[in-house]
Amino acid sequence: xxxxxxxxxxxxxxxxxxxxxxxxxxxxxxxxxxxxxxxxxxxxxxxxxxxxxxxxxxxxxxxxxxxxxxxxxxxxxxxxxxxxxxxxxxxxxxxxxxxxxxxxxxxxxxxxxxxxxxxxxxxxxxxxxxxxxxxxxxxxxxxxxxxxxxxxxxxxxxxxxxxxxxxxxxxxxxxxxxxxxxxxxxxxxxxxxxxxxxxxxxxxxxxxxxxxxxxxxxxxxxxxxxxxxxxxxxxxxxxxxxxxxxxxxxxxxxxxxxxxxxxxxxxxxxxxxxxxxxxxxxxxxxxxxxxxxxxxxxxxxxxxxxxxxxxxxxxxxxxxxxxxxxxxxxxxxxxxxxxxxxxxxxxxxxxxxxxxxxxxxxxxxxxxxxxxxxxxxxxxxxxxxxxxxxxxxxxxxxxxxxxxxxxxxxxxxxxxxxxxxxxxxxxxxxxxxxxxxxxxxxxxxxxxx
Length: 449
What we know:
The chain is mainly α and about 450 residues long. Helix content is about 65%, strand content about 5%. The chain contains 16 helices and 5 strands.
């Protein structure tokens, strides 16, 4: 990867794209440190210690969410809008027709996605404002009281408008990387937000080492080794694919004969990417989010206390639910993304067939069987990445005693989850592929050379 970047830097046109991309990332990081007006945040916003939607947003925004900056919503509204459009394209025939209309159809879908992004950003900013107001993070008047009347309305409008505008600006920045940069702009913005948390993570591990406990002298280097191994594992998982052999029949057109060649249909093992983990994390974070808005004395000692505890990220019950949901959403996404009947019909239209399989329904049944098997393998491999940091933390919590008697300063938490690692590796691999394809285009010698 480093060799690819070094070779790309030698090409002037690609070098300009790399510099432009770095400049956009710099603008994004500067915006992630500019506070929203009318907020009184001296330190990080308390998003809770459990598994809530707020901790998820803090992870995906590179901690911009916890500092109340203008880019606090980050790129998550656009990601949610893209997922919603993918799901609606399956259910709404008009959107499915747009997807098949080529470049013009994709442009229309992109315009609708932008509009949905702004709407989701507005709703998310509105919810964020109410959270800030409920937790006393809004600026007050000279007497120390909350604003009332027109001043309160103006304060709310400014905060919500700035956060929504920040969402639109980030979306625009990502599109500029796609157009004038190295491509894959939205993913690179997300990648930059996750990587920005590295200094905080390193600082946390240094604090573990400074405790003077021998167990941390072993665990801190071990976690870095495991991190490297996980990256290698994700690269292998991302490149793994099942190749279904395809044989095209010979046909005569005029005086020429076409077809007769053998090829293959590649199907990735991890065909759903990181989406099953994102869906599963979002669902499991809902109970913890509801718990934040309920006074703890209202459910202590009741069934609801055990219910909410089961959805915290520090229990084996949560790990089991996480595993089940990843498998469920993996199959769900594979089902809506791949249509075996349509794939079989396309093969038959192009005079293609799978050796040993009859065209039509037998071909679609065979493709369906292959997809189901690959989906199972893919989600199991994905579950290893998602659950390893969680299981590691649970084992350390159970085996490492606290420093102080009766304290909660034991264990060894892993700050970087499986979602972050998969996104980082996926974006890095895709960016390298983009650079390699652009270099190949510029080294290609045409017939005039």
